[in-house]
């Protein structure tokens, strides 16, 4: 199901007057509204194919309705999101859940929907039906070379699919680790993993990046072999220039200072990209910005400052992806909320005056430095986002329009109540 | 599959000499070996029916082999454990996974295996096929009275099954809570839950206990309606004398002092029982004693001291249950390790000299108090456990015998490779 | 040093035009600007006397300048804050750091400065010069009755001072606890503390409240005898109707859901008041709102909703106090930032539409509930606070005026560079 | 005060029979008692000079008695410990608290006491009286080059003192970081610190090591510039072969897997040494082994396995130091407990059969791997430690002898009740 241009225009017209009042006020408060809106229009966040259906926990899953059950339907869902906000112009696929049968047709569909193929994701944390060897005790780290080879082959196959579709990066998230003291020789697990990653790295096309994702715990509950940014950095730096660290906001120990990690990885030229979500306890995979929006802002503040310091392109030089689970919400509404929260944080970060902040830091004027950050954060930037959407042809109120048009009801009609997406 | 008395005897005979050397040494180091062994023999830990198969995480489950697929087979597995260690003389059932079809026959089987029926567990955290209303947004807390009533009815049905089997307690673990700020009115959720529990409480036979379990988070990742001991205490004290708090070792925020909670609940006469397991990060449900054995000892130290202070019976006045998940181990071996760890902690706690400790505390002699605790903890009490097993007719080395007799292989032959137990 | 009315007026005049533009916009976005501003004017936050100087850590303290070294100077500092924001109309004293020598004169000074005397704070966590018995091993919990009596007497003395000054509440924060397993008998410590508190409670005037503050850890690093809200609730409910729980935002285990605790305590009629601050790791005592502003908003959302549900008066029925430490900032500037952050959260909470939220909750419309909360939170309410200040005769930009008038430099001149306030 | 050989011999004689019974039993249970005892005799743990007096918290300090107030007295205290356990044959000094006035005399005293000078510690986390520039906003990270230079000069001075005494390593622990978002430019702070460390590194003698200690938080409560092992590793690897990471057990975020960090640092040849202590919440600096003894064992298991894999000398190739605070215990007794706990963990780690463990790991036999670790850990190795002490001329029961001889009372007599050691 897709929207018509007219549907969007009618929606916007009804809200336009109010929007203009808001926009005029806010744009009058900031020095560079036009440039900022340009950046907001360009900033795109990739949607993961596995987030289009309801997720669950080990205790069960409460199904949604009208979920996309084919790869084509997943693209259509992302296309719909992108129509609504013009900020979701990419999809991140997951193999084996999203094996393309006809890459050409798929690329054509993506082009129609104005979508790009973002990072490809491999899966060696589950056993698939018919799989020869089990990943119960790990994949790239496994004590058995044959298991490692199977996992390596899988990753190389994922690269192959990605090449067919025009993707340019591979995200390797490993569940590898151990559940009990003694289960693993940490050094051997590390070195096996490094060797395995090295073979995959060698299969990477020249224009590709490899993202080495880290995670503190879960599904292994004693150790994880790529457990923190330090380990990911070690892998990435040993592998070579195409290997980078990927930061998932939920993959840290309690109270970690993620924004500092981001700044240091940028400093070391090893930050590759992001998996956005939010969390209170662990890898809760909640809607971005729903729990700790100020932390999200602080991360973006480091991103903007650090990328600008190295002359990086905000839109292309890092991978921006969502990785969340939708246990109690309509996944499409949840994703609209997440993209909005990301772009709010980005807009607020752009409002921080770098010169004034630098001066405050140079003077150790901690109070002023805080005022500058809070001043940007407390600004209501929603009219700026709305203006960017309006200019890009999206809806002023994406969730409002989604509800008004009863999109989910339409999808249920098209796909049936019990259509279930692949994923967790 | 059950063991013969001869198999156990032969096994013990081979190990007897070594055991005697060990036992003579240790029993010579402590004042009251006989009394202690008597207590060890009497101390029984209930096995949950859902822990006899492999557990998984939201990322997947790696199946075991030869799991029990009927309730009878589950009893047999526990019967087997009990033969091996004579310390697992009870099973804790879970409805709807373990609905007894013929209660009489089941009781007979249990009697043959020398097993009791421990606490009954209800399940309102999942939707069952054919269930009318969904628990997606909670059960006893639900904004919709009809959903609450459905959950109440389920709990009353669980009591009915329990009565038929001779159980005497109901464990209510609620996943109820919320994933996002704003989702729930905390007060209404609390008060709805209290009302619902009240109706269930009223249906409780006079000789029954209700255990109100608390958990900090998961599967809800923002709030849990029975989220900590304070909330459980509030419910239990408002409900009445038959209502108690149940402590699951994995259900706390990081760094919680569980032993202090235990001591206070005993002081308030509101401690009901335990779900034993171990964890490093969250509700990891690892083998008991595999991560923080000293904490386990400290908890038992409080239990022994607090129960003795109130003249309670160690074996009957609290509920002792395991609640763990077996992602990478044979569940039966894992349970043998868990029961062993529990009894080691119990034995060590019994070695603490209460008079000397009290004197050290009275003198604020912190060094001596620590020496007394560590002195007990550092004692190798395994020969005492072995002596208790020997005297009770169990195996000196339960895991050793289990492996020697290739029990799992036998179970696979009997039940097939792909037999899967109900559970998570 | 105090400001003149003229100084404030001149400052406001210069900012007025810009303020009016901002205010007109925001007040046009919300339904009830006038009523809201009235509430903001009435909302007062007490300043603790010990927060007027620089704090330190166990690793050292970096002194500030021109700190108040007499009780009179402390009142003057708070009076100055109150002039700047008309929101700090109370001071919370700490005995023995603030023993009033001439209560009458002090009350007169307070009246001149338009200040009230908020909760009195006792101190049994340190030994004072000449003190007979040591609190090294606790105070109200101590194994030695004589130590307990000394601590009881001290608290009763604090009440006496408070009565002279017209205060109406006593905050009891106990460092009591233990550093090592075995050091303490938890039950006896609890019961001793209860007995001791009972005697103090009996000495409380009828119109007074007793606030029982809890804290998870520090300065004791194994157990704390009033360690969490559950323990505080137990004490408060056993003591009687005048005893309440006091919540300090930094006194929890990692990831605690403080807003839920607040809601439950309100539900149980046992919430007494707050110590505001912010933290990332533990009891970091940072500026309010500097780390987790959304959590602060969620807490205020519960406060507003819960107080309204019980018909409570926002300004009087709970105690609002700051408790922070100023290691790297000018304390007065830091306090201005804290008060601002508190009132921003309060204003945002007042913007949440209770009817719409209730409806969303009733429909389990989690997405809408989140939109409602975030809609309020994302609103830039600073112009509303400024309008309230303007109306109350305070400065439109308190920190701006403080800096413009070089207040700290004046204080240094008056008091000397090395004047040091009592405190930590 | 020093002990006489006779005092020790008489003490041992009284305990000998009991010891022999214990020792015969344990040595009969393990394959290699003699070799193990040899290793235990050789294993020495350095005592920090600042741990010989009572520590405190930001809330206050409860003084002990008879603390050493001169550097000579500190050496004597360590000498006394070393007499008691023959395992504390080194002292770690801290500048400016321990500036040697007469290095020659001090070396002579150390030689008499059979003590070595372990790592030298610099201090740029406090301002000293008369210090020109303040470290309030950092030292080696500071925005002001002059402050950085002052801190560099101080470190170079510390090296100079160390050279005079025959020390061979410098521990750099930096409190540098920030308390509030915005205070610091993370990249500049990192790069300034790297530059500063580089200059100090260049001043290091060829045979010296530099230990770069990391800490997650405190005394800065938002960010720390050497905040985790990853950052320390970055510094150490950029500095050169003489720079290493130092692990303090209390310097991590909650739930960190420290043993894995240790294994990886060994793998990367960047582990330099340890600061031993224990903790429940943060950097609690409690007695080693008093909270998480199994974690300590797991760390030593990695140390033994990892050092052996690289052919390292257990006694010399890593730095073993205690860093604890003694708030409620006699510091000397506390240190005896800490050294005992360290050596118990070391002995248990030596009991793990590496071949069997490797085989279990190779077979993914998680149950057996756990049994092997727990088998070693549950062994009561205290008689082995006692045997090592006996052989080395130390006391069978160090704390017992310390108390029997009323050492503290003697020290109070010699030094006075109110003698206070320098330190925190």
Describe the structure.
4 copies of one chain form a homotetramer. With 424 residues, chain A is α/β, with parallel strands linked by helices. Chain A has 15 helices and 11 strands. In chain A, helix 1 packs across helix 13 and helix 5 packs parallel to helix 6. The two termini of chain A are 24 Å apart. The mean pLDDT of chain A is 97. Chains A and C meet through helix 1, helix 10 and helix 12 of A and helix 1, helix 10 and helix 12 of C.
Structural class of chain A: alpha/beta
CATH A-level architecture of chain A: Alpha-Beta Barrel
Number of domains of chain A: 1
Distance between the termini of chain A: 24 Å
**CATH fold topology of chain A:** TIM Barrel
Spatial arrangement of strands, main beta sheet of chain A: 4-5-7-9-10-11
Q: How much β-strand is present in the residues of chain A? A: 5-15%
GO molecular function, one term (chains A, B, C, D): metal ion binding
Protein name (chains A, B, C, D): Sugar isomerase
Domain Xylose isomerase-like TIM barrel (chains A, B, C, D): 101-285
Keywords (chains A, B, C, D): Isomerase, Manganese, Metal-binding
């Amino acid at each position: 199901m897709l929207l018509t241009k007219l549907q969007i225009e009618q929606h916007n017209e009804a809200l336009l007057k109010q929007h203009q009042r808001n926009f005029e006020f806010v744009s009058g408060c900031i020095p560079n509204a036009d440039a900022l809106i340009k950046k907001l229009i360009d900033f795109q966040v990739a949607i993961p194919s596995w987030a289009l259906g309801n997720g669950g926990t080990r205790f069960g899953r409460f199904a949604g309705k009208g979920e996309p059950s084919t790869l084509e339907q997943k693209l259509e869902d992302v296309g719909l999101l992108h129509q609504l906000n013009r900020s979701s112009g990419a999809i991140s696929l997951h193999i084996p859940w999203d094996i393309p049968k006809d890459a050409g047709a798929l690329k054509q569909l993506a082009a129609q929907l104005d979508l790009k193929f973002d990072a490809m994701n491999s899966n060696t944390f589950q056993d698939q039906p018919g799989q020869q060897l089990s990943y119960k005790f790990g994949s790239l780290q496994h004590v058995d070379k044959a298991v490692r080879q199977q996992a390596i082959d899988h990753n190389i196959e994922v690269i192959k699919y990605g090449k067919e579709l025009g993707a340019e990066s591979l995200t390797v998230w490993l569940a590898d680790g151990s559940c009990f003291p003694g289960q693993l020789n940490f050094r051997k697990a590390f070195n096996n993993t490094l060797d395995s990653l090295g073979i995959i790295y060698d299969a990477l096309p020249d224009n590709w990046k490899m993202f080495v994702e880290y995670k503190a715990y879960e599904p292994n509950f004693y150790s994880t072999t790529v457990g923190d940014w330090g380990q990911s950095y070690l892998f990435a730096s040993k592998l070579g220039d195409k290997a980078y660290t990927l930061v998932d906001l939920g993959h840290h120990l309690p109270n970690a200072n993620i924004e500092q990690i981001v700044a240091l990885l940028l400093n070391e030229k090893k930050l590759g990209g992001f998996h956005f979500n939010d969390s209170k306890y662990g890898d809760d995979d909640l809607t971005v910005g729903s729990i700790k929006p100020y932390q999200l802002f602080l991360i973006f503040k480091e991103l903007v400052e650090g990328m600008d310091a190295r002359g990086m392109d905000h839109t292309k030089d890092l991978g921006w992806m969502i990785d969340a689970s939708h246990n109690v919400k309509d996944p499409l509404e949840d994703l609209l909320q997440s993209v909005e929260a990301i772009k709010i944080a980005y807009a607020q970060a752009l409002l921080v005056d770098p010169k004034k902040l630098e001066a405050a830091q140079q003077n150790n004027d901690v109070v002023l430095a805080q005022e500058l950050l809070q001043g940007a954060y407390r600004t209501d930037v929603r009219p700026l986002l709305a203006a960017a959407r309006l200019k890009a042809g999206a809806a002023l109120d994406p969730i409002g329009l989604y509800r008004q048009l009863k999109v989910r009801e339409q999808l249920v009609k098209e796909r049936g109540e019990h259509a279930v997406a692949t994923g967790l």
